[in-house]
Design a protein that fits this description.
Layout: H1 23-52, H2 56-114, H3 133-138, H4 152-173, E1 175-176, E2 187-188, H5 213-229
Helix pairs in contact: 1-2, 2-4
Amino acid sequence: MAGCCTCATPTRSKQAGPPGNVGDELRQVRAAAWDARLAGLRAVAEARAAGHRGEHDRAAAQHKLAAGYQALEQAYRQRETVFAQTMADRADWDQATRAQRQLAVAADAELRRRHPGQRFAALRSAEPEPATQTQHDELTLTPDQPPGGIDQWIRDLAAGHRTFAGQLADRQSQAVPSEDPGYADLGPAFPAWPSPRRQPILQPPKPEIPPSPQILKRAIDRDTDWEAAD
């Protein structure tokens, strides 16, 4: 449901949308950080081997390359932290608003069913715009150049994480007041969608195993003995 007709209500009022979907960017920087780490370790090993051979210039160059890869890994890890926080916020948003979003879609469908001849504006999605190709290109760093600061659009995601945390806490603290002031609240105004519970797996009945002829003969003989005893 996230990202498709997610934040419109039957009155067509646009609510706060979900955090951005940066799953592709998160995978990209994680893979790049891992590659930079491996390349840095390889450069350190090459520097040691060159030092043992007396190739001091090559060893110095490899040490410099290793330092560049280490700085590259740190830069990617910083971006990974921001993207991971954004995706975690998105999961929290999905769980906190799923019931209300489904009610909005159901109310819109019921409104159209009751008034088939009337035209209504389509539900509007509040899904943020995905990252542009230019922003994707900014995530590609090279070890020969020192990585600069985090780009503005990533800093905006980090600022959005802090804002979202406050909004979610405020939403979860709201309660439905009782009509009688002397009684406690009736419960949370926006209950979270319950996580699906694992149901027991239905097992088909085990096939009946027919008894062997020897067992059947013993049963018949036993019944015959009982009848003779009676």
